[in-house]
UniProtKB/TrEMBL annotation, chain A:
Domain ABC transmembrane type-1 positions: 102-291
Stretches with biased composition (Low complexity): 1-16
SUPFAM superfamilies: MetI-like (SSF161098)
Protein's name according to its UniProt entry: Carbohydrate ABC transporter permease
Organism: Streptomyces lannensis
UniProtKB/TrEMBL annotation, chain B:
Organism field: Streptomyces lannensis
Transmembrane segments: 44-70, 106-127, 139-160, 190-211, 245-262, 304-323
Region Disordered, residue ranges: 1-26
Keyword field contains Cell membrane: yes
Lipid bilayer topology: Multi-pass membrane protein
Predominant cellular place of this UniProt entry's protein: membrane
Protein name stated in the entry: Sugar ABC transporter permease
Subcellular localization, as worded in the UniProt entry: Cell membrane
Record-annotated ABC transmembrane type-1 domain positions: 102-320
Lineage of source species: Bacteria, Bacillati, Actinomycetota, Actinomycetes, Kitasatosporales
Length: 306, 332
């Protein structure tokens, strides 16, 4: 990730931990400004505790997935990984259709992410930089949709899906989440500051049509934000549980649905359930390890909405 | 800050625009009309996908829910419906299990949201210090956010296991005897709240951190000149500046707690999960809806539950609005 506009909406792009005013010179001798102070040992101690709390359940997933059930349910419980990780992963893979579930999850999350990126960038651009009647009201409408929980519409959604022949199919979980309000809002906030009007005007003077401007001017500028939005969307789509659990069945699940059903079965083997949990989490953890900085930046950028 | 649009510079008409059209050839006026149409229609075309998708899979089902709530629709015969009027509503309102679910949703919502946001606020304050490896800390506290509800609930289900679970084992060192987390009235709610708190605290902390970094430093400088201590600065400068953000996170967390589903479903798993425990001690409204519609197969009452949730949400929004007005007034 090379450049983003160094504005307030992208605070993490500043050097790590540096308050925004550093370097104005003026604030340096006014240490009372609070924000300048370095974290002391107590700060680090507190962070270490919180950090351990954040990571321990994930670590213990690995531990539980690498013992047999007997050992997992033993007292005292195991605290270090054992040697059965591979065989547990294998049984989880075979018993719960996890192979198919993973493929399904990749398809679902991939489609949702691609569509979200495309449509949200278009809409975000329109809301940020184009003039049209009803823009303010429509933007308010977009944000208002954020407050509607999916629970309110699952019953008819389920009926509609079976009506049009999508019952139990991946389409039924892909289509309702193709374009999210958050994505529209996120791209709008970004483009509002990152895309100068001069660029658009210049392209217009050159005789570019609107769709050409989108392609040649907006998309290159939007790319860093699109990357972040893409990761956030993928994480969300991958982890989505409620509607997929209602819409899909055992034969054709996403990975989360498969996990839910694995644990809902009679006397599930806990170490195999944990192995399944591990399989479902690993891809995302990998994304986090590689792109953690961008994801953190994206969440913080999306948060400063004033 | 950025919710208002910046003033637009002189809006230059597209080349061959209206001025040229009046005396130009047919070809040119045709072209200019095309340009004008392009400018007029494009924005609507760009935002159309959102509204089409939302209309088809959001708004329409929402209204349709109201229709189903007044009918008898069974899972076994989805295409048949029979008018029953307000029977479905009467049915759920007279069901004590429904009121248990309302109370549980409310209680779990409070005991998961309040500590979560307080801890997040403190955590954001820590992260706002000048730190070594600040990105590392931020990423670490965000990892639970990358974990799915299903995974989190399943791991914590093991941690909270009654006999010899990890937590009970750890607690026996400090003198607690075995706690039956899942079956207890309060302990089960606490267990579910812990899962929620674990997953969302880091996320909220980052949102607060972003807001803290946007607070103008002048305010702190002015405060320190007036001799305010750091704690006073935090209380009198940071917190008031964060008020809109805090309100935002409260709204989001409230909506989120109305939706709690995976955590209660998987805490004990199996059939216990879909009725929210043997005595419904941790049954939330989403579980109740799921049980009515998908386990028992009665979609009419399930739709009525959805409408009840909508009413509750509006009520919460109203309370929120009144409280925030009150807070603003008393602060002024």
């Amino acid at each position: 990730m090379t450049t983003t506009s160094p504005t307030k909406t992208a605070p993490t792009l500043l050097p790590a931990g540096q308050p925004r005013t550093e370097g104005t010179g003026r604030s340096r001798f006014k240490l009372g400004a609070g924000q300048q102070l370095k974290g002391g040992p107590l700060t680090y101690a507190a962070l270490v505790i919180v950090g351990l709390g954040s990571l321990f359940p994930l670590y213990w997933t690995l531990v539980a997935a690498s013992h047999d059930q007997q050992r997992v349910l033993d007292t005292p419980p195991p605290l270090v990984p054992g040697g059965r990780l591979w065989s547990n992963l294998q049984s989880a893979w075979e018993q719960a259709h996890l192979g198919k579930a993973i493929v399904n999850s990749i398809i679902v999350s991939g489609c949702i992410t691609a569509a979200t990126l495309f449509f949200c960038t278009l809409a975000g651009y329109a809301f940020a930089k184009m003039r049209f009647r009803g823009r303010g009201a429509l933007m308010t409408a977009v944000i208002a949709t954020l407050t509607i929980p999916p629970q309110l519409s699952v019953v008819p959604l389920f009926m509609m899906m079976s009506d049009i022949g999508w019952g139990g199919k991946l389409e039924s979980v892909i289509f309702p989440t193709l374009v999210g309000a958050f994505g529209v809002f996120f791209m709008r906030q970004y483009l509002l500051e990152a895309l100068p009007y001069e660029l658009i005007e210049a392209a217009k003077v050159d005789g570019a049509s609107n769709i050409r401007i989108v392609w040649n001017v907006v998309l290159p500028v939007a790319r860093p934000a699109m990357m972040v939005l893409g990761m956030l969307t993928f994480v969300q789509a991958w982890n989505d549980f409620f509607w997929p659990f209602l819409a899909l069945n055992q034969e054709n699940p996403t990975i989360q649905v498969a996990l839910g059903q694995l644990s809902a079965s009679y006397t599930p083997d806990q170490s195999i359930v944990m192995a399944g949990a591990l399989i479902s989490t690993l891809p995302l953890l990998l994304v986090f390890v590689i792109f953690g900085k961008q994801i953190v930046g994206g969440i913080m950028a999306g948060a400063v909405k004033g | 800050m950025a919710t208002t649009t910046p003033t637009r510079g002189a809006y230059s008409p597209p080349p061959g625009g209206s001025g040229a059209a009046s005396n130009g050839s047919d070809r040119r006026s045709w072209r200019s009309r095309l340009w004008r149409f392009d400018d007029l229609a494009s924005p609507y075309a760009y935002i159309a996908p959102f509204f089409l998708i939302f209309g088809a899979f959001g708004l329409y089902p929402l209204l349709y829910t109201g229709w189903i709530a007044l009918h008898r629709v069974e899972m076994t015969s989805l295409s048949q419906s029979e008018w029953v009027g307000w029977d479905n509503f009467a049915k759920i309102l007279q069901d004590s299990e429904f009121w248990t679910a309302v109370a549980n949703t409310f209680v779990i919502g409070v005991i998961s949201t309040v500590p979560q946001l307080l801890v997040a606020l403190g955590l954001a304050h820590l992260l706002n210090y000048k730190l070594r490896a600040s990105t590392f800390w931020r990423t670490v506290i965000l990892t639970p956010y990358a974990t799915s509800v299903a995974t989190a609930a399943l791991v914590f289900a093991l941690v909270f296991r009654a006999d010899g679970g990890l937590l009970n084992w750890a607690l026996h060192f400090v003198g607690f005897s075995n706690i039956d987390w899942g079956n207890g009235e309060w302990t089960s709610k606490i267990a579910i709240s812990v899962i929620v708190i674990w997953r969302w605290t880091g996320y909220n902390a980052l949102i607060y951190l972003a807001a803290m970094q946007a607070v103008p430093t002048d305010l702190y400088e002015a405060a320190s000149i007036d001799g305010a201590t750091r704690w006073q600065q935090f209380r009198k400068v940071t917190i008031p500046s964060l008020r809109p953000t805090i309100l935002f996170t409260i709204v989001i967390s409230t909506i989120g707690s109305m939706q709690l589903f995976g955590e209660p479903l998987l805490l004990q798993g199996g059939t216990l999960g879909s009725i929210g425990g043997n005595e419904h001690q941790y049954e939330t409204l989403s579980i109740y809806l799921f049980n009515y519609g998908w386990k028992l197969g009665h979609l009419g009452p399930a739709a009525a539950v959805a409408w009840a949730m909508l009413v509750l949400l509006l009520l919460i929004a109203l309370i929120n609005w009144i409280v925030s007005r009150f807070v603003r007034k008393s602060a002024a």
